[in-house]
Amino acid sequence: MRFYLVRHGQTEWNIEGKVQGKTDIALNETGLLQARLLAGALSGCGASRVYTSTLKRAGQTAEQIAEEMGIPVIASGDLREADFGLWEGMTWEEIAREFPQTAARWEENPALATPDGGESLEECRRRCQRIVDRIAAEQCESDDSSRGADGGRGGVIVVAHGRILVFVMGYLLRRQEEKPELITKNASISVIDYDAGTGMGELLTLNDCSHLDGMAAGKSNRYC
């Protein structure tokens, strides 16, 4: 099956460089436009469902895609952005001043660092694995198994957040340590072919923003 992994559109906190995490920030005007462009880019992909985080910024993005394609939206708390604890609402400069040790670890490899007071790496991994397994099982069991644009079983679209997508991709690709280069931009599309039987995946596309027609994808590259 094919996973179309989408990071939500831009928010004001993305522009301001603030950590969002579980804070429920809506899309700004640019983000709403990005969502519409995403919908157009994905309209012919053959996906049968859109799975989304329960946070507004992801839900608004998913709704545009689902409306364009005429497919259902399924919201899951397992796709919510990681809880960034004491870092939420702070800029990266403020975090570096207030929490220099953990900020330094984050700069070295964000996928291996836990924000102060935030959700642990293991908690993030566990729920990302759980939602991938659920999606794969539901897709395999579904009667709606018509062939999509990938020439096989129709795929699914997953709309989520920067940090969560790192763990989702890491699990789909069966990497032991998620790599910083898996960081995704606002409104980007990454595509992975996944065999639920073997648990192996193949990365086909990473961070495709061509549908944005040169529109800035956001200032922050630190996930959230």
Averaged pLDDT, please? 89
The count of β-strands is: 6
**Spatial arrangement of strands, main beta sheet:** 3-2-4-1-5-6
Class from secondary-structure proportions: alpha/beta
So what's the CATH class? Answer: Alpha Beta
CA radius of gyration is 17 Å
Q: Which architecture would the CATH scheme give at its second level?
A: 3-Layer(aba) Sandwich
Summary?
With 224 residues, the chain is an alpha/beta fold. It has seven helices and six strands; from the N terminus they run E-H-H-E-H-E-H-H-H-E-H-E-E. It has one domain: Phosphoglycerate mutase-like (Rossmann fold, 3-Layer(aba) Sandwich), CATH 3.40.50.
Furnish the topology, listing elements before pairings:
Layout: E1 2-7, H1 12-16, H2 29-42, E2 49-53, H3 56-69, E3 73-76, H4 92-98, H5 100-108, H6 121-141, E4 156-160, H7 162-172, E5 189-195, E6 200-208
Parallel strand pairs: 1-4, 2-3, 2-4
Antiparallel strand pairs: 1-5, 5-6
Question: Can you put this structure into words, describing what you see?
Answer:
The chain is of the alpha/beta class. It has one domain (2-212): Phosphoglycerate mutase-like (Rossmann fold), CATH 3.40.50.1240. It is 36% helix and 16% strand. It contains seven helices and six strands; from the N terminus they run βααβαβαααβαββ. Strands 3-2-4-1-5-6 form a six-stranded mixed beta sheet, sandwiched between helices. A hairpin with a 4-residue loop joins strand 5 and strand 6. Helix 2 (29-42) packs parallel to helix 3 (56-69) and helix 4 crosses helix 5 (100-108). It is globular, with a radius of gyration of 17 Å. 46% of the residues are buried.
